[in-house]
Amino acid sequence: MEGLRLEIVTPDKVVLQADVDYVGAPGVDGEFGVLAGHIPLLAALSIGGMYYRQGVQTRWAFVSGGFAEVADNKVTVLAEAAELADEIDVDRAQQAYERAKARLEEQRPETDIMRAQFAMRRALGRISTASR
Amino acid sequence: MPSLKDVKLQIAGVGKTKQITKAMGMVASSKLRGAQSRIERFRPYAEKFGQMLGDLAARTDGAAHPLLQVHDRPKTTVILLFSSDRGLCGGFNVNLITAAQHLAKAREAEGRMVRFLCVGRKARDAVRKSSWELLDAFPDVMGSFNFQLAAHLGNRVSQLYASGEADEVYLVYSEFVSMSRQVATTMPLLPVVPATAETGEETPGATEYVYEPKVEVLLSELLPRYVNVQIYRGLLDTSASENAARMAAMDNATRNCDELIESLTLLYNKTRQASITNDLMDIVGGANALQSQ
């Protein structure tokens, strides 16, 4: 069977380069899956967990939004931040979650609500991805 | 003739200076290696981004997004100026600041208002001393910046541009050409001009993508991030350039110290010999005087 090549790239490094069988990613309009032979696709990703299957194994990674490009059996994920599930710093994410929650609950006039909400979503995404 | 002790002190002083410049040079060279590898690691991301944007922009018309629109009758120019936080790196900061001033004066001559956003302490200090308005400054970040800083700056200028407070945004940074060449570069940042041409439609069998969501929505997600990518690249290049410039400056300084020590040592030996000769002449003179008595 034809293989699928997955690359996850962030500004600081190439997080992952691997041959996989299937990629599931959180598109902004809902999750989508990619198998070998997929038509060329350019999609925006939302904050959350993505996964890829190698044989019977399924692995997870966290992406903080970004883009996915599919072409010639190659999936390129561009994200401003991305981590593999076992590299996620859960304590840090937990702290970030508490901070964001506190900020949202206080609702002071100078709070940037959008920013706090995004921070919260990122933290939750990391925590849930790490526990997969 | 200076006294022996003075010369000795001077040699010791220059020796200490040499130690410092040598150490600074070494620190700069290791930082440069770090900065270079960051550029290497960033390249795949930046290239892919440019490709995607070019591809998308080719499929939409120019007015599709506020960041693509060219403002007619521009009134304000925002200049994003990068520099280092510390000196002792040769003409590095001077070059950057001169380039920015040059641009600012040219824009002012056209009747536009010029405002600055500065990263790095030297840039901030220079703009503060000038008559131009300083919107905001980020001093003391060149040693430890990350993509968040670029994103923050990007959001700021994108907002300024979209709200009409800025009609054009320029980036003045130092391009890292090679170890011995860093060029202060002025790059238009906004409106965004996507590089379409080479990867354009001419290529036979160019991939037809399925877009999810629509092209317009995708573009509006992509464009602000593209600005961030450009800014981050500028930051990385500036940081690499700074360290290369400092390395060269410190190498020069170390070499000058060596020369100085050499000439001072010569002076020291000459002084020493002169004093020995004087002493000998005194002794001989004394002995002769005794004999002739």
- What is the structural class of chain A? alpha+beta
Helix percent of chain A reads: 25-40%
How much of the residues of chain B is beta strand, in percent?
A: 15-25%
Main sheet attributes: strand count, strand direction, barrel closure of chain B? 5 strands, mixed
- Regarding CATH, which class of chain B? Alpha Beta
CATH architecture of the largest domain in chain A: Sandwich
CATH evolutionary superfamily of the largest domain in chain A: F0F1 ATP synthase delta/epsilon subunit, N-terminal
Number of domains of chain A: 2
The coarse silhouette of chain B is elongated
Given the structure, what is the number of helices of chain A? 2
Which sequence of SSEs, written as H and E, runs from N to C of chain A? EEEEEEEEHH
CATH-defined architecture of chain B: 3-Layer(aba) Sandwich
CATH homologous superfamily annotation of chain B: ATP synthase, F1 complex, gamma subunit
Beta strands of chain B, count: 6
Tell me how many strands of chain A there are: 8
CATH fold annotation of the largest domain in chain A: ATP Synthase, domain 1
**What's the overall average pLDDT of chain A, rounded?**
88
